Amino acid sequence: MEPWFDEAEGQALLDFMKNNRWNISSVSEFEKRLADFTGAKYAAMSVNGTVTLALALLALDIKPGDEVLAPALTMIATPNACRLIGVRPILVDVDPETLCMDLKKAEEALTPKTKAIMYVPLNGRSGDMDAAVKFAKDRNLFLVEDAAQALGSYFKGNRWSKKHLGTFGDFGSFSFDFHKLISTGQGGALVTNNEAIYNKIKLLKDFGRAPGQQDIHDFIGWNFKPSNILALIGVEQFKKIPWRINRKREIYKYYHDNLSQIQDIEFVETDLNLTTPWFVDIFVAEPKKLMDFLEKKGIGTRLFYPAINTQKIYRDEYVGKGFPVAERYGSRGLWLPSSSKLTDEELKYTVELVKSYYA
Ligand SMILES: Cc1ncc(COP(=O)(O)O)c(C=O)c1O
What we know:
Blueprint: H1 7-18, H2 26-38, E1 42-46, H3 51-59, E2 67-71, H4 77-84, E3 88-92, H5 103-109, E4 114-119, H6 129-138, E5 142-146, E6 154-155, E7 163-164, E8 171-175, E9 188-192, H7 195-205, H8 228-238, H9 241-259, E10 280-283, H10 287-296, E11 302-303, H11 312-315, H12 324-332, E12 333-336, H13 344-358
Parallel strand pairs: 2-3, 2-4, 4-5, 5-8
Antiparallel strand pairs: 1-9, 6-7, 8-9, 10-12, 11-12
Helix pairs in contact: 1-8, 2-8, 3-4, 3-7, 9-13
């Protein structure tokens, strides 16, 4: 999943530096592009997609002693962002159809301390967002969508014709690290339709400084501002999104068309009219063996996230409590080469090797 930059990013950086464009805010331009692209009213960029999750919880006034529901199958940043601000993440098993949080299981995990749900559209696939929004609303919970892997992915429901993931809850959080659809090296952003909490995010990420650049601090805040230099790269990357979405979908389709007949390989159902898979994920009995086989042939793959409750840092809290779906998929998942930069020949080579392994 190599990142992909070219002359356009280089030229933009050179122009920025040579012409002393320090007072031009490429962060604002990046934020405007993200808001327009997702259809959110506001976007606020920050340093990465872990900090954005913690900022979202802070802006919603979630405090130590509160609990936040998080899926047992996700990247570790989702629960760890809660821990960063001293809040306890409560794990919930996922739905085998979508690998997103199972709302029936979420019901069982509620306590009087539950304040919010971190909903993760894993690999750009969402569950029923209408149901997730209703679940949160009926129980007076905040909904934070960890949409780090969902840029270019949508949900279509009874109430929406097609709506970008990350725009259903109080906040949607995105990541722009090296492996994402587009990258700023490291970077993250929140989107929201709520002006009050958007303003709070701006304060929290800028030392709590009153608007207008004066050093007046009525709020506690820190420095979680992104760099204009990285945002400039992001602005150029944004121009490449339509092509990349198309290519990512083609790549997923190619693997699916060629490998889904193999009995030993499971794909999670993916609607490519709505989803832009971040990585191509397959689920097999012994993914490490397939990984080693491919590695010997020069193909890099990556094992899926183990279920969060099996990680050493969370294990003790969940002794005797299983999350069978998260554990099943977490132990079987393998990410195949998925960069939008891959050529058709490279894809074909990988597919032939996987086929030969199972033959
Ligand atoms: C679901 C999810 N949440 C959060 C993050 C963290 O984002 P970042 O690496 O920008 O901190 C990631 C990163 O891949 C992710 O996949």
